[in-house]
Amino acid sequence: MSGYWTQWQTVPMSNTTIDDALNPAEAEAFRAEVREFLEKNASGIGRRSETSIQIGKTYQAALAEAGLAGLVYGKEHGGAGKTRAHDRIYREEYGKYPDMTFELTISHGMCLPMLNQFGTEEQKRQFMPDNIAARTMWCQMFSEPGAGSDVASLQTKAELDGDEWVLNGQKVWTTLAHVSDYGIVIARTNPDAPKHAGISMFIIDMKAPGVEIRPIHQIDGGSHFNEIFLTDVRTPKSWLLGELNNGWNQATAMLMFERVAIGTGSSSGVTHNLADRLIDVAKNNGKLSDPVIRQELMKLYCEETCKSLVSMRTRAEMKAGKVPGPGGSLGKLHGAVIARFSRPLINRLVGADCDAWEGEGRGENWARYILSSFQSNIAGGTDEIQRNIIGDRVLGLPREPMVDKNMPFKDLKVGTIRS
Ligand SMILES: Cc1cc2nc3c(=O)[nH]c(=O)nc-3n(C[C@H](O)[C@H](O)[C@H](O)COP(=O)(O)OP(=O)(O)OC[C@H]3O[C@@H](n4cnc5c(N)ncnc54)[C@H](O)[C@@H]3O)c2cc1C
């Protein structure tokens, strides 16, 4: 196993409380507190929209006010300083409501654990409290026009100039960059090293001079991700996240946090939300007695149940105090497989209404769901890449050959490099 894969798998989660002991009375008292909060504050969101960001922020602010935000993070870093058992109880109760915080997935599911895991004490105190309470939004800048699946081929560079890093390059597909305050970016800091070895990770201010954000318009009518052009963007030397030239290990860790966040969602326990919603549609459309529809719904129900169980195992592994391993890819891939399987079923159930995706048409939400569901096969690493990871890291199959592993990056012709 090569070094850059093995190192991060066993890194203990710093500053998280892993003591799981909660006696039944404590657990019940906490569950009652969470239920009371959710009854008052969890109104839910119909579908993704511009207001869903504001709704998520408002909900998160209320959560922070109630002392229930960032449950497993230390109080000194803006968290609640509670245990993983509290977190599990919260997720179980939260899972009974429509998710209000999916717009915070990148901030909380990816950037926050990275700050906690790799940030200096100063960075944690500076950034984590506002992140946890959603006073700030964060984005992830990895992908480039010539570096997606093979993100280690990235060409954005960072050079030290006195007390500041100067970044130049282009990023793409950056979700929610247009509403983000900060971003975690990876850039090349040593072109003489092999491509995986000369990368570092930085925090940048998304409002800094030289950061140009251009929206990308999506097939479903939305505009949630962006192209980003970085021209002489200056970021303080102290905003290097983690170690210099250790960016690949950290990027891999962040991708695993991402796959867990995408694959397991915000809730815990066994859920089958899509099947439940489609069963309602079948009832309303008089199709529940159709044997083929019933069979497909049952398959979907089983797939969602299995995915929940895999997610619970992944979360249990994280509970043991580790950055999630390649098993995180299982949940992520499973979600993508469910999306692919559900598309023709939705079309059959909702029928012609599904074509109405503007205005108040009954099928609008489903049409948007179908169109946006294609992203689940790509975002956070494509299905093929998840299969590669599962193949060589989970099943122990032979790795893909890597001809450029030991060559200096500057001698490679990768991505958009033409000469
Ligand atoms: C909705 C959405 C949101 C996103 N948000 C972000 C974000 O916030 N930040 C960010 O940095 N990026 C983001 N991305 C980018 C995403 O990570 C990349 O699109 C993804 O990693 C694939 O890279 P690519 O698009 O360059 O495709 P490519 O890497 O060019 O892949 C093209 C095709 O080749 C296949 N392929 C490539 N390599 C292999 C291989 N070794 N084995 C088998 N098949 C292979 C792929 O599976 C794919 O089918 C987002 C993408 C989407 C769709």
Structure description:
The chain is an alpha+beta fold and 419 residues long. The chain has helices spanning 3-9, 24-41, 50-65, 84-94, 105-118, 121-132, 247-264, 273-284, 291-319, 328-350, 364-373, 383-394; strands at residues 138-141, 157-161, 164-175, 182-188, 199-205, 211-216, 225-236, 240-241. A hairpin with a 2-residue loop joins strand 2 (157-161) and strand 3. The chain is built from twelve helices and eight strands. The strands form two sheets. A four-stranded mixed sheet has the order 1-4-5-8. Strands 2-3-7-6 form a four-stranded antiparallel sheet, with no helix packed on it. It has three domains: 3-136, Acyl-CoA dehydrogenase/oxidase, N-terminal domain (Butyryl-Coa Dehydrogenase, subunit A, domain 1, Orthogonal Bundle); 139-247, Butyryl-CoA Dehydrogenase, subunit A, domain 2; 251-394, Butyryl-CoA Dehydrogenase, subunit A, domain 3, CATH 1.20.140. It starts with a helix and ends in a 25-residue tail after the last helix. The longest helix has 29 residues, at 291-319. The site of flavin-adenine dinucleotide has 20 residues, from strand 1, strand 3 and helix 12. Flavin-adenine dinucleotide binds next to strand 1, strand 3 and helix 12.
- Under CATH at level 1, the class of the largest domain stands as Mainly Alpha
SSE order, as H and E? HHHHHHEEEEEEEEHHHHHH
Q: Find the count of extended strands (DSSP E, 2+ residues).
A: 8
Shape: globular
Structural class: alpha+beta
Task: Summarize the biggest pleated sheet.
Answer: 4 strands, mixed
Bin the strand percentage.
5-15%
Distance N to C terminus: 33 Å
Supply the number of helical segments: 12
- What number of structural domains do the residues give? 3
Low-confidence stretches: 1-19
CATH architecture group name of the largest domain? Up-down Bundle
Can you list the strand order of the major beta sheet?
A: 1-4-5-8
Bound molecules: flavin-adenine dinucleotide
CATH superfamily of the largest domain: Butyryl-CoA Dehydrogenase, subunit A, domain 3
